[in-house]
C-alpha cells in the first residue's frame, strides 16, 4: 500500500518536471486536461507557500511533541525509579533490622551466609552480600560482586544509615544498597548503636522499572505520528484559507496581464490579503482607465486620418481627372511650364495613390473590409500582376501551373504587387517570385539578391510609413504598401514573414495563406 | 416605377438601334454633384470627342433623359453619392425606362456601394480618383458593347431565340429587352454552348477590362440576366454556374 502511494507521488513529481517548461511559453491552457495537469503540478511542490507552511507547522509540532515526550519520560522515569528505590530501601532496612538480632558478633561464615540468604529472600530475592572483617558471604556465591563499588563500601563504612548507589552493569540498571549492621536496633535511637562490624549489601535489579519507563516512551512515540499527521492536516487547512485568496489574486493578475483589464477580485475581510486585493483592484482600475483613454485617442487619430483622406478624395478626383490634359498638352508649352505641368501631373498621381492607401488602411483599422473569394489560378494571377505593372521582364517568376486557390484575387494582387514593388525599389536584382502549394497552404516568396535587411529595419518593415533609409525622405511607394500587404494576408487568415538573414540570400518575404479561404458570410 | 406604357415608348427605338453612335459623337450624360470633378470630366471627355451634358443632380439628369429620344444620350456616367435622388435610384429609374449603358462613379473602399449599384442595373463602375484616360476607355468599351457584332446568325435554344443580326432576344415569342452589357454577355456565352468561361475571360470579352477587373461585375450581370431569362432564376438552365471555374451556356 505504502509503496504504491510513494511511487505515484514520484511519477507525479516527474510529470511536473516535464510539463513545467512546456506550459511556460503557452498562453493559459483552457482545456480540462490542462487544468488537471496544473492542479497535479501544484501538489508535490514543497517550495511553494503551502509547502513551507506545512513543513513549518509539522516541524513545530514534531519539536513540541518530542520535547514533551522527553520531559515526560524523564519525570516519569525518575518517579518510578524513586519509588522502586524507596521501596527497596525500606524492605532492605526492615529486613536487616529484623534479622540483625539473630546475628552475634563475632560471627562465623555459616551464620553470615544464612543471614545473607534470609535478607535476600526479603528483598525481592536479590543478591545480598554480607561482609565481616575479611570474609564475605553471599546469597548467591556465584554472582558477580563488582556491582558493589568501592565508593559504596567507603560510604557504608563512614555512615550508619543505608547508603545506596545506582549502577549500570551489563547494560542493565541496578540499585545497590549497603548498610552497617548495628548491634541492636540502631536506626531508631538516633544512631547511638554500636556497629557490629558486619556490613551488608544488596543488589536489586531495576530492569522492570526501566522497562515500564521505556513502555511509556513507546506509547508516547506511538502517539507522535497521529499528532504530526494532525498537524499537517491542520496546516493544510490553514494554508488553504490563506492561499485561496492568494491564488485568486494570482489568477486575476494573469488575466490582467493577458489583457482582460476589467478583471477585479473580491475584497473579503480586513486582513492584509484583503488590502492586497484592494490595491490590485485599484491598479487594474487605473490601468483600464488609462488604456481606455489611449485607445480612444488612437481611435480618434485613426478616424481623423480616415476623415482627412475622404476629404482629400474629392479635390484629388478633380485634379487627377484634368492632370492628363496637362500631360497631353505639355509639348505645346514652354519648357518651364511643361516641366511644371508634368510635375503637377505625376505628383497628383502619387498623392492619389497615397490617399488610396490611407483610405485602405483606415478601412482595415475600422474592420470595414470584406473578402471576395473565388477560385483562382495562382500562376495566372501572379503573372497578371507582374504584367499589369510592366514587371514581367524584371522579375524571375517560378510559377508552377495548376495551383488553384480560393482567395480574393484583387487582394492577392495587392499583396504580390507590394512585395515585388518593395523588392524592386529597395532590393538588388534579380527579384524572384516563387509560388508553391503544400499542406493546404499557398506560399508566395519574393526574394531579391541584395544584402538583406538590417535587423532594425526587419523589425519595422511592416510599420506604416517606415523608411529604412532616413536620408531618403520620399520613395516611390506610399509607405503603406507593406502594412497593407500584411493586413490583406491576415484577412485571408495568413501571414507574411521575413526570412532570417542568411549569407548569399537577400531579403525573402514569404506570403503564407490557406489554399482555400472561406469567405465570411 | 413608371407606368409600363411609357416604358414601351423607350425600349423600342433603343432596342432597334444596333449602334447608337455610328456617324455621330458619343453623347454622354454626366451626373456629378462636385463642380470641380464635373468640370474636369466634362473637359476631358470633350477633348476626347464626346458631347457632354453635365448636371449636378439625379433629378436634372432624369429630366434630361425624359426628353424625346432620351435627349439623344448614348451613355450615362453617374456618381453614386448625390444630393436628392442618389445614384442607385437614378440607375434603377434609367433601367426601368430602357437599356441605356450606365457607368457608376464610386469612391474607393465603398464595396457595398459597388454591389448595390450593380444590382440597381449599372453596367460598369470606376473608382474616383480616376484619370480622364481610364474613364474615356471605359466609356468607349461600354459603347462598343452596344455596337455591331461579328456573327449575324440566329439561334433557338429551346424557345429562347437570340437574333444576332437584330440584336434581339425573345423567349417563347415575347421580346426580352436587354441592356448592351447583358446582351453582349449572353451573346458571348451562347456563341459556344457548353463552353466554360472564367470570370476573367468574360471580363476581358464583354467589359474589355484587364486581368484585374472586378469579377463582381460578371456575377451581377449574370444575376440580372437570369432574372430576365430563366424560369426559376435559382436553378438556371441557360446560364449555369460551374463552381470554382465560371459560367457556361447550357447544356439544355
TrEMBL record, chain A:
EC nos: 2.7.13.3
Q: Where in the cell is it found?
A: Cell membrane
Q: Which GO MF terms are attached to this record? A: phosphorelay sensor kinase activity
Q: Where is each Histidine kinase domain found? A: 307-517
Recorded hits in CDD domains, A to Z, give: HAMP (cd06225), HATPase (cd00075), HisKA (cd00082)
Keyword Mitochondrion included in the entry's annotation: no
> Annotated region Disordered: where?
1-37
A GO CC term assigned to this protein in UniProt: plasma membrane
Kindly give the Pfam families that the UniProt entry links to this protein.
HAMP (PF00672), HATPase_c (PF02518), HisKA (PF00512)
Broadest EC class assigned to this enzyme:
transferase
Q: Where is the HAMP domain?
A: 240-292
Q: Where is the composition biased (Polar residues)?
A: 1-10
Protein name as catalogued: histidine kinase
